[in-house]
Write a structure and sequence with these properties.
2 domains; four-stranded parallel beta sheet; 10 helices; 48% helix
Length: 230
């Protein structure tokens, strides 16, 4: 049987739970606000890890690195690791370190952003196409399930309510997630800024980063996909 690989915070537990519901012909939606880690999982193994594809595998991911960053920040750093308990400066550096990894690691990009089998972005942009791909995937792997398209669409719609919309954060100086990504770009692109002191609050951080606002936008927009909200 195949193994599904997915990036951290990238919807793997949701997808596994969706397949579980199809396997059990249980068409109730889980009661989840952000993360699906505690929900029942399907018969197909799901995991992450930067190791060689030496076994039969399916990659569930997308190529847009800002979306990877945003998912990990919201679902892992804030809701599992609880970084909101840190100081503003510590939160900034925690987010920035994560963003630097996404932006600079060729191994990460090669593993999670190339040769994608189930394209995560389709959930938000072309859900009917994602449903087709999911059904083809389940059929190809001989999974016993009920192909309830209405439930698949309901589950996708529900899942989107647990995610952060990139357009709510890109260019939004009230978003700590945006500040963290901007700080990572600052470091990687060696942009000149003042030192961010331990007692810095969000207003202070914004004033330090904002002179490079246009540069951040130009660097980020190609790295994100927008949701189709029709």
């Amino acid at each position: 049987m195949t193994r599904v690989f997915y990036p951290r915070g990238g919807g793997g537990n949701w997808l596994s739970n969706l397949i579980w519901h199809l396997e059990k012909a249980d068409f109730s939606l889980p009661k989840v606000t952000v993360i699906f880690d505690q929900q029942p999982q399907c018969s197909i193994p799901f995991s992450h890890g930067l190791h060689a594809h030496s076994q039969s595998h399916t990659l569930f991911s997308c190529k847009q690195l800002f979306n990877h960053y945003l998912n990990n920040a919201v679902k892992v750093k804030y809701h599992i690791h609880h970084i909101h308990q840190l100081t503003w400066q510590q939160q900034l550096f925690e987010l920035s370190n994560g963003a630097k990894h996404y932006l600079s690691s060729s191994d990460y990009y090669k593993f999670y952003c190339e040769h994608i089998d189930l394209d995560y972005s389709l959930i938000f942009q072309q859900p009917e196409q994602f449903a087709d791909c999911l059904i083809d995937f389940l059929n190809a792997n001989g999974i016993a399930y009920t192909a309830n398209r209405n439930y698949i669409h309901a589950s996708m719609s529900y899942y989107t309510t647990t995610c952060a919309d990139p357009t709510d954060h890109i260019g939004n100086w009230d978003s700590m997630l945006w500040l963290g990504f901007c700080h990572a770009i600052t470091i990687l692109d060696q942009l000149p800024i003042d030192v961010i002191m331990p007692d810095a609050d969000p207003d202070t951080i914004v004033k330090i980063l904002q002179p490079h606002a246009e540069h951040y936008l130009q660097r980020t927009k190609p790295l994100a996909f927008e949701w189709d909200k029709q």
